Amino acid sequence: MRTLILVCGEGLGHTSRCIALARELLSAGHEVHFGAYGYSQELIERKGYIVSTIPSEVTLVGEAGALDLKASILETVKKGRFLGILRIKRLVKKVRPDVVVSDSYFTGIMGSKAMKVPCYIIINQSNMEEFFMNKGVSSRLLGSLVKKFYSGAFRIVDGIIIPDYPMPYTICRKNISFDDKLMEKVVYSGPVIGSTYQEVVPAAVQHPHVLSTVGGFGYREPIFQKVINAAETDHGIHYTLLAGPSVDPAKFTQLPPNVRILQFISDQFPYIKSSQVIIAPGGHSTLMETLSFGIPVLSFPDRAHTEQQNNASVIAENELGYCLGYSASPEEILLHIKDIVYNGKFAGNAQSMRQLSEQLNGAKDICELLESCAVSRGQGWKR
């Protein structure tokens, strides 16, 4: 079976789970081709995969770390990005896949279906119109148009894959909404992550250990600094903080002895496995990785980011961690960390999610779904 995977580059969570899927497909003896752009393409190429450059579907616009989705869509339309369907058609004709997997990349759906090739979409959000709620008449109208567009796309795909736990454990459940007809196409595969718990060797850190993936730049910098301040008051808990590619760790000259700041980690899983707490925003892929390793979460969802706010609220509701706001004090942060580290808060629930993730095996589940599609079509692409 030959699979073409098209990746939305607006967030590396899409990239990491697609790489995990590609690895599973290759291990099952299948052929994999990628279409990607930007840093996503660079990351996939570094992993040794064949990648074709595809047009970016969305031009992101915003200020001070806040995404302006209305402006982003208008800018996308102005630049003619949706004309990329023609380029996708040419790519499909060149690769001749038996099936296309499009991770949150709607142009890929249009292009592959125009070439009469089966297409599955991977998403963790289906209610994007929420970005436009309570933002004026023009925004509501634009939101309505966006909803019509992606609802139409959902209706022509062969399947909708949610890379999350099945209900009622689904972390992205507040971001997912389908009518009864579309629900017939929906598959909850389970988390799709780059490494399994058993194959990861823990990082050499001092325990108890906290890993923070909240970058030290822009609008997230106050939280980054508050975590450092929290660490200062209790040297018994050790921290690794990821500053992000745009921040030089050397700028932090007076750190408490229990804090280490790194700019980048090529593989986060050893640090996740070595931690008792993960401090993170509300991004879906990071939460899937963390829960698949059975670690409770301290989530600081980005302000005005509906998807992250929803994910973080489910983390709290399912008693898998705490959802905190940007107004949280260092004392409050430390109190919640101690509750998890010393009192074992949420540990049992988080371990149950790790076990469930292992049972589901999301990448294998998707691989088998695609194999079933290829078999039902006989020889796949007609040569």
Quick summary:
The chain has 383 residues and is of the alpha/beta class.
Look at the helices and sheets and give the structural class: alpha/beta
Q: Residue ranges: pLDDT <50 for 5 or more in a row?
A: 59-69
Radius of gyration, in angstroms, nearest whole number: 21 Å
Tell me the name of the CATH class of the largest domain.
Answer: Alpha Beta
Could you state the CATH homologous superfamily of the largest domain? Glycogen Phosphorylase B
- How many strand units? 15
Give the mean pLDDT: 87
What would CATH call the architecture of the largest domain? 3-Layer(aba) Sandwich
Domain module tally: 2
* Proportion of residues in β-strands: 15-25%
Shape annotation: elongated
Note the main sheet: 7 strands, parallel
Question: Can you describe what's shown?
Answer:
- The radius of gyration is 21 Å and the shape is elongated.
- The chain has two domains: 2-190 and 361-376, Glycogen Phosphorylase B (Rossmann fold, 3-Layer(aba) Sandwich), CATH 3.40.50; 209-358, Glycogen Phosphorylase B (Rossmann fold), CATH 3.40.50.2000.
- Helix 8 links the parallel strand 10 and strand 11 (238-242).
- It is α/β, with parallel strands linked by helices and 383 residues long.
- It has helices at 12-27, 38-46, 69-78, 85-95, 106-114, 137-156, 180-183, 221-232, 269-273, 284-292, 306-317, 330-341, 347-360, 362-376; strands at 2-7, 31-36, 51-53, 62-63, 66-67, 99-103, 119-122, 159-162, 186-188, 209-212, 238-242, 259-262, 277-280, 297-299, 321-323.
